[in-house]
Every structure is written in C-alpha cells, then in structure tokens.
Design brief:
23-stranded antiparallel sheet, globular
Length: about 725
Amino acid sequence: MNHDALHRPLMGMLIAALSLLPLSAVPVVAQTASEVTALDSIIVSVTKSELTLEDAPIAISVVPVERMLTQGAQTAVEALQGEPGVRISYYTEGNFPIVQIRSAGDAGQFQNTDVLVLVDGIPQVNLNDQSYYDQIPFEAIERIEVVRGPTSALYGRNGVGGAINIVTRRAPEDFEATATLAAGSFGFFKPQITAGGALSDRANVLVSGSYEPSDGWREQAERLATDLFGRADIELGGATSVSLMARYFDLEQEVPTILPLLADGSSVPGIDRESSFNLPGAESRNESFQLSAVFNHAFSPSLSLTAPVYYRSTDRILDREGSFIDNVDTDAQTFDLYPFTPTADESIIGVAPRLTWRPGERVEVIGGLDFERNDANAGAANVFPAGTNFFTPITVNYATGQFLTDLDDLETLVRRDGSFESEVLAAYAQVRVDVTERLGLTLGGRFDRQNRVLSDSLRPNPEVEAEYDRFTPRVALDFAVSDDVRGYASYAQGFNPPFGGAFAFERAGAEELTPEVATNYEVGFKASLPDGRGFANLAGFLMERRDLVQTLRIENVNTQVNAGGLDVFGVEFDAGYVLGGGFTASGNYTWTDTEWQDFEVRGESFAGFEVIQNPRHMGSLAVNWASADRRVEIGPFIDYVGSRFATFDNSVELDAYTLVNAHAAFRPGGSDRVTLRVQAFNLLDEEYLTRTELDFLGNVLGGSPGRPASFQASVSVRY
C-alpha cells in the first residue's frame, strides 16, 4: 500500500464525511445508569486553560473515579483499559506496563517514551525518557484526562501519541473518610483508607494510604506495595493560595520471565502460561518520594499566576532480572537466560510558572516557563557462570524447571556505573480567540532546549555530552455547527528527545541526532443528544512520525540512530446513551492503519510493512443497570483487541482477543455509606498475548500472557 499516494484523497474523503456527522471525540462519562454528565460541565486542566470537554479543540476523554470503581481498577493503568485509541500491555506480569495511544508507545524499542504522563500537570519523566506508571498516586485520583494526539506545544518532550494527566482530589472542606477492603484471586488483598477535612478556616487536608500484598497469577509474580498520599489546600489570604502534596511509594515485585514462544508466535509445548523460569530472588524494587507545591495568585480579575514547584526522588533496581531469554530449543527442552541488574537513582527538581491573561471575554493568553533538572546515577551488571564471560547464558530446562548452570557459582560483572545530568529549559505561549460566537481559534508554540551529560569510566566513551533545540507549533479551529454540535480541526506536532535515555546515550556524536517529530492532522466533532440523554463522538487523524530513534549494538556500544519514519491513519468513534429503565450503554471503536515509511534497521528496509504491536481494530462496550433507589447496580464491560503483527517483516501475526468482564454493586439503604462490589475479569478464560518480544535479529522469542479468569470483591464504608 502506497500511503503517499493515498493520504490526501483519504483525508479529503474523511473530512467530507465528518462534516456531515454530528459526532465528537469526547466519550461518555457515566455516573449511574440513569444519568450522563454533560460535556459542558467537565473542566479539563490538561489544556492549561479553563476549557470544558465541549470547547477543547482536541480529542480528549475523561475517566472519572466512578468508572474506576465500577470496573475494579487498582492502578491508573488498569483504569485506562478500554479508552478510545488506548491499548494496555505488560512486559512481564505485574511489571513495566506499556500504554499506547494512537499506536505510539511501543514499536519494539524503549517503552513509554511516546506518551507523556503528568500528575496535576507536572511531568513524570525519568532519566531514560520513560514514564513509570507505578509511581502514579491511585487512591487519591479524582479523574484521569487522556489526550489523544501530540501535546508537545504545551508540555514538550514525549508528547507524541498523547498525554495522560492524573488529577488528584482536592482536600474537602467538611470531614469525610472512606475505608475500603478489597480481596480477590491469586492472593490479592488491599486495605485502603482516605480521610480529609478542615484544619482551620483557611486550610483543608486529605490523606490516603494503602497496603497491597499479592501472589500474582504467574509463578514468581508476588507483589508488595505501600502507597501514602497527602495534600493540603491553603488559602494564604487575599487572592493567594497554595496546594501542597506529598507522595511515598514502595514496591517489591518479583519478575517472571517472558513466556517462551516458538518463532511463529505459538506456545512452546510443555510450558503453560503460569510458568516462570527466572533466577530465584529476581525482583524489581522501586521506592519513590514526591513533593510539590502549586502557588496560585490573582493579580486582578483578568491576570493570574500559577507556579508549580516540585521535587521527585526515585531509587530503582532490577535484581538479577532474567526476563530476557534466547535460544529456545524444543528438542533439548531448554532456553537461555541472560540475567542483569540495572540500577537507577535520580533526583528531579522543577519549576513551571504560568501566567493567564484574559483582556476580554473573547481572548485568553497563556505563557509560561518550564525548568527541570535531573541528577542521577545509572548502573548495570551482568550475571553469568563463573570462569566465562558476560555473553555466556544461564541455561534452564523448561520441562523440569531445573537450571543446567550451577547457580551457586555465578559471577557478576559491573558494566555501567556512571552519573547522568539533564537540564530542560522551555518557554511556551498559547492564544485562544473567540473570533465570533461560533468560531474559535487557538495558536500556540513552545521552544525546548535540553542538555545532557553522561560520565561513566566503564563505558567505551567515558563522557558524552549533547544538546538539542526544538520549536513545536499548534493550530486549532473550533466551530459551533449548532447549539448541540461543535467541530474542530487541528494541526499539532510532538517530539521525542534524540538520545534514548542514559542506558542508550553512550556514544560520541550523539549531538548529531535529530529529535523525532510527529505531525498530526485531525478533524472531529462533539455533540450532545437531545435532553442530555447521551453523546456520539468521532475523530479522524493522520499522524506522520519522522526521524524515529532506534537503538542498535554497534561495536559493542548501544548506539542511537535516526532510522526513518511511520504513518498512522485512524478513526476513533465512541458513543453513549441513557436507554431508560435504569439502563445506560456506552462503547467505542478505533480503527488504525500503521505503516513503516523509509525505515531501516540493521541494513534491512521495512518500508511498506505494518508497524508491530499495533492492532487495526479495538473496541469496548459497557452496559450498566441501576435500580431506581440505587441499591443495586450491575452490568458487563467487554474489551476487544484485534490481531496485530509481531515481527517487522509481518511474517508472524498474533490472534485477536476479547475480554468479557462484569461488575455488580449493592448499597444497603440506597446511599453510598456502605457499598459492596464484585468484579469478574476474563469470564471466558481466554488465553491471549498482550505483546511479544524479539531477539536482535527480529525473531519472536517470547511474549506476555494476559490475566486468566479472576475476580475481586470489596466493601467500602464512608463516614
């Protein structure tokens, strides 16, 4: 398929079709089975402007806390499951969740670098340009805002596929407390408590904490997590206020191996999906601490200042992590492990002052600065049989589970132990003008400069320094077709840094690389149905990603190269409706066509092939019923992920899968004082792979199996 020949006529046809449809790119936000929240009642903060979902000229959806509770989500990543254009996978069970938006986020290289994660608008990016989703505060979430499409004009690096903004709850003025106890399959157990209220006339506080031990459904997947969160909202007097937030997170998680697969992606005979063959004691440990203060001051009714200041420290280690496998031999019933121990500790400080000026009812100007500094240490060690070298694997017999290598006689070689420094300085501005009562115009742009220095005496290049500059524009038009229908058209860019993080940024000449740039063309409509009974939504987009950064081993050094580009052409549809009789239905469907353009890896061109790990079809459907007195609530929610290719040459295709889930809630007395919930997941016990892993030659090695049939139950008491 020649995309260059088809792009313009296809986009023209799509725009013409969209212009006839009163649809939108904003999903239904269901509260109960008898009501739907209006688009104009939800203010989104990810735009850095006080816009409603209806007025925001971007494709954005909101996941409220009510939906998280209904679907039994226990993490922010689980709460994103089933959102339009969003796909969730895991490297190994319970470890390293990967979020893709509009196919960006996983193309077989560094995961979680194409989607920007924010907490109350503060970026959560580490030394490898990745986002650690397990550091997101979950218990105190008010809502999750999901932007589909580039966001670099406001937030800079990593805003290629989109952005996920976690909005935490404000401290309540009146005392309230909730205690929840959840338990379920595979040893899952989680007590949680949240409480808050007024300390004085000017200060309100909120605290939350949880403790979670779990066995995990695979072998070597035990988990122990502690999560503490606190927030204080303080009126300092006059027009000045401050919000103080602190969060501590500690996670110990065993690391199972990826599931060995045959070269065609099928299961290896004799290995079931629960099995793991990692070294004893292999685990991931993550301890993080975050502090932030957000100052707000109104100089006048038309001019205000918001100034976040933040600090984040993280200490992570993957101890003897052997999830990377190779050389699957079905005759000998063996495969090889290459255990390693990467470590990273980092301290990040940042400040992001922003001015908002509204000189009239029709004009809003936003301008700000971002500064962030990361001081980190990054190390890595290989584990191998004594008397050999770090290229020598540890062999395991998967039929018996026995190691053919003496685990009492292993050596450890430290191969990386250096310091890493990064500074980002950026300035941005955005102007929104209501040209007429029906037509709005948004213009924005941001200039980023980042400098990096890596010092490591153990590497072939002991000191590497590089810098890049990038300007990112955005233009959007929004227009009211009628009182109930609003459309938009936008042009936006996103970019990724050219270095690939501390673990890959190891060679001299890195400054010669170009940041990856994603250019997105989009049209969409937002409409409410009569009498506020629902919505119907549609968006179409073309995203062109160029100068993709890939990591290759060249002369035994992780080397970054600009490898080419890919195109993503897609349509996103979602709708919801209050059916009556206590029933509400909502659903979405996403179609994407992804294709490598001028793309070359290790001398082989893959131009014209579909991009790996990207399904063409995805969809979700939820039906909910609630009794008139709200005592009983019940319904299924179903997620579908279509087939997708596992190899660059498209020779291996993974099967589609459908997850049938259900929930039920009971509220004695019809109030929220006591709520009993039950959730069931993958009721049909479908066996499926969320993703696959490739060797250096591009062949399938293994994959990550999805969770089997399971359930959880909880009881919540509110005071």
